[in-house]
Design a protein that fits this description.
Largest sheet: 3 strands, mixed
Strand order of the largest sheet: 3-4-5
Number of domains: 2
Radius of gyration: 40 Å
Number of strands: 5
Order of helices and strands: HEEHEEHE
Number of helices: 3
Strand content: 15-25%
Helix content: 55-70%
Distance between the termini: 36 Å
Length: about 180
């Protein structure tokens, strides 16, 4: 979504820049140059008109500054609103992904904590990965009971949707890779 702040600010600036030109009505020149009969140029300066023109220019400048300030404030409000809407859109789109990643990290941490707390499982040699609540166990253990216990602990952890147990028991062939799940 494009913001309208730039066109509004440009229009306001052009309008302000034109104010002093529009205020010029009739002969406001405080300086007159004339040639006399001999062709000599005489320059006359009317100090009162110079002062009057300076006062009018100051008024016009003050008015223009106020208009510019209003335009800048409005533009800043519009830009701020656009930034807020953009941040909300990013939060809506990225927030769920970030929550899922943080949720998976929490599941992994809980499974690892359970494995470490169980003296029957060689937790140091077991790797835990979690994606969308699906926990994958990898590594090597000494017995089939340790492999089964690790899987049981993982399955009984909050947030776990499924467990893929790829743990290898020492002296046995590695387990086959899991078949892809269709949803």
């Amino acid at each position: 979504m494009r913001t309208r702040a730039l066109p509004i600010m440009t229009a306001a600036w052009l309008g302000i820049a034109m104010v002093p030109l529009g205020a010029c009505k009739g002969d406001v020149s405080a300086v007159h140059a004339e040639k006399d009969a001999k062709g000599k140029t005489e320059i006359k300066v009317d100090r009162e008109k110079v002062d009057q023109n300076l006062k009018q220019a100051q008024k016009d400048l003050d008015t223009a500054g106020q208009q510019l300030q209003k335009g800048v404030k409005q533009g800043a409000q519009e830009v701020g609103g656009a930034l807020q809407r953009g941040a909300q859109k990013v939060q809506a789109e990225v927030g769920p992904v970030a929550r899922e990643v943080l949720n998976d990290a929490g599941i992994t941490a809980r499974v690892k904590a359970k494995l470490i707390a169980d003296p029957e499982v060689a937790a140091v040699r077991i790797d835990v990965d979690t994606v969308n609540g699906r926990v994958t166990l990898n590594g090597k253990v000494s017995t089939a009971d340790q492999k089964a216990e690790a899987e049981k602990l993982a399955r009984h952890t909050d947030g776990v949707v499924d467990v893929v147990n790829l743990i290898q028991v020492a002296g046995q062939a590695p387990p086959p890779p899991p078949a892809p799940k269709l949803r």
